[in-house]
Amino acid sequence: MSLVCFLLQSLVTGHWSLATDMGISHTKLWGGRFRKQTDPLVEGYTSSIRVDYRLARYDVIGSIAHAKMLGRCQIIGPKDCRKLVRGLERILRTIEQGDWQMDPSAEDVHTQIQQQLERRVGSVAHKLHTARSRNDQVSLDLRLYCRDAVIQLAQVIGILQRALIRFAAKSQKIVIPGYTHLQRAQPVLFAHHLLAYVEMLQRDAQRLEDVQRRIQVLPLGAAALAGTSLPIDRHYVAKLLGFPRIAANSLDAVSDRDFACELIGVLAGLHVHLSRFAQDCILWATEEFGLIRLDDAIATGSSLMPQKKNPDVLELIRGQAGLIIGNLSGFLTVMKGLPLSYNRDLQWDKRFVFESVEASVDALTVLERFVCHLNVRPEGIAHLLESDFICATDLAEYLVERGLAFRQAHEVVGRLVAFTETQGKRLKDLSLAQLRRFSKRFDEPALRLADPYRSVERKRSFGSTHPAQVRRALRQWRLRLGMR
Ligand code: ARG
User: Fold this and answer.
1) What's the CATH code of the domain at 353?
2) Mean pLDDT, the chain, as a whole number?
């Protein structure tokens, strides 16, 4: 909504000048010391509700825990406590049923929930803000949001991993050229290539799990910045909210956003991985590579060129990595040089977090769909494997097995490749006599080395592309990710 709409709405609803029946002559959470109304332009500019409404559920959950603690510590009476909790639970139900609506004229989500509570339970609502400031409240809300986001992100990462594993299992016999410098290097199993991404995603999931430890630290009780003179019980609130730790320094508690920066950092890393997978698939789907075919369901067309089938989804994911990396950089720049403790600059934190989380869930979800629609093109792969110089390393290792130092073997096969190339031939076209002109250590079995399938089967090291190694990896991933 534009600033102008906001101003008009404020005028219509009179939200900025309402006199209520509760002895508080405004709808703000502050204002007692103000003699003039806030300029509506300032109100519009400082409002964050259009972004932070996403925190509504968490705001209420945090408030319920806070109210219960106030009652338990006898800071408010048991009746007031019950009224507050019941009122908040009713608001929570509205939110969970999807019936809650953001009020664009509220300053922020905390203010809107407070106003709703006042309408539901009357003046007892004014006791909820005891020993609490929006500074510790907003940090708690964001932490609760991040905690759920991490759980959801880990789930969708797992879903994508399983799709990759299922496809890898189906394509265990497919050999493709592996690349370095984007030049054909050595044959690898297609499944091995896919499992490389499963490994990357697993590290992303582990990093998420690690951030969770720093997300689940209770800031509530820091109040505005210095703590409170009231006899609160922070450990009780932490227990109610399932936070294993409470913030040890009130100044740090209200100004720390490391956990959110870290989360975006992890998502930036995740996007780097997704963008690399997207790029591999974009290349594979080109006419030039011809390794996969884009399914109609996940491809897009051109408004001008009737023949085109484009990988827009993959390109958007590749580009989205720039967006998330930008968010990390933007967020760190907002934080940089901020004096302690809370500053309103921190209000910008939420758009970085929400956008990064929502975009990541979208990208992972659509990529899973893409993997489910993957089609390999055997004829395209066969074409890529026609040139058999990718088996050159196998010839060199063959000579090593027959006693030649690797450096010499490398030299011999290098000369052999140059010779074959000038003859316009392939390695498998050479006769034993021709091979033996380069090294007497070549014998009859060497004639069968220039075969990509044999090449993967010759590998033996742990973690290599040997079919048995890939089968083992698949088995372990299935077990690890709870697949049948
Ligand atoms: N909307 C604010 C934010 O997101 C809430 C905290 C306001 N605190 C304050 N001292 N003005 O940061």
Assistant:
1) 1.20.200.10
2) 94
Q: Say yes or no to pLDDT of 108 above 70.
A: yes
260 and 182 together in one domain: yes
Measuring from atom 3 of ligand 1, which residue has the nearest CA?
347
pLDDT digits (tens, 9 = 90+) for 252-266: 999 999 999 999 999
Residues 349 and 409 in one domain: no
Q: Considering the candidates 25, 123, 235, 302, report the single residue annotated as catalytic.
A: 302
Query: Could you tell which of 347, 349, 351 is best to mutate to test the pocket of ligand 1, judged by most ligand atoms within 8 Å of the CB?
Result: 347
**Alpha-carbon gap, residue 456 to 170, rounded angstroms:** 17
Would the pTM of this model clear 0.90, i.e. be above it? Answer: yes
**Residue 430 domain boundaries:** 386-480
Checking if the pLDDT of 7 tops 50, the result is no
48 in ligand 1 pocket by Cβ < 6 Å?
A: yes
Give CA separation, 479 vs 113, 162, 165, 197, in Å: 45, 11, 11, 17
Q: What is the spatial distance between Cα 193 and Cα 365, in angstroms, rounded to a whole number?
A: 20
pLDDT digits (tens, 9 = 90+) for 266-317: 999 999 999 999 999 999 999 999 999 999 888 899 898 889 899 999 999 9
Q: Is 171 a catalytic residue?
A: no
Provide the pLDDT for residue 387.
87
Catalytic, 181? Answer yes
**Phi, psi values for residue 417, rounded to 5°:** -65, -45
54 pocket-lining for ligand 1 (C-beta < 6 Å) = no
Residue carrying the six token digits 């720049």: 333
Ligand 1, atom 4: nearest CA belongs to which residue?
347
Indicate whether 214 and 307 sit together in one domain. yes
What is the number of residues in the chain? 484
Ligand 1 contacts CB of residue 275 (under 6 A): no
- What's the pLDDT at 24? 62
Tokens coding 128:
């909820």
**Closest atom, ligand 1, to C-alpha of 346:** 12
